[in-house]
Amino acid sequence: QVQLVESGGGLVQAGGSLRLSCAASGSFFRPYTMGWYRQAPGEQRELVATITSSGRTNYADSVKGRFTISREIAKNTVYLQINSLKPEDTNIYYCIMVGNGMEYWGKGTLVTVSS
After folding, report:
1. What is the CA radius of gyration of the chain?
2. pLDDT tens digits for 9-30?
3. Local confidence band at 108 (pLDDT 50, 70, 90 cut-offs)
4. Which of 35, 44, 64, 110 could form a disulfide with 50 if both were Cys (CB 3.0 to 4.6 A apart)?
5. For position 103, what pLDDT does the model report?
6. Helix segments in 37-105, DSSP class H
7. Of 65, 89, 78, 77, nearest to 16 (Cα)?
8. Peptide bond before residue 31 is cis, with ω within 30 degrees of 0
């Protein structure tokens, strides 16, 4: 059983920064890709960023230059540094792990950006 636990969300003013964390525990195969999606109420879940076991990153165009994904392999943890936050970044941010044909999701952490 794999568990992903996100943390770091909260309320922040526009222009501020947050760092989200997602720690994976349990039994899983390596290599794996970890990443972040986000979803606003009534909207579809959308990709934010991913990072492979080799460190290759991929970002949604809407977050390039403001978001940075990184990982600590030894801790099975992925981070999302979010800078210059905008009100439209208000979403629930979900962590994902993909590997060996399996896909795991965290329960999400809420980021609210006030204008």
Report:
1. 13
2. 999 999 999 999 999 999 877 8
3. very high
4. 35
5. 94
6. none
7. 89
8. yes
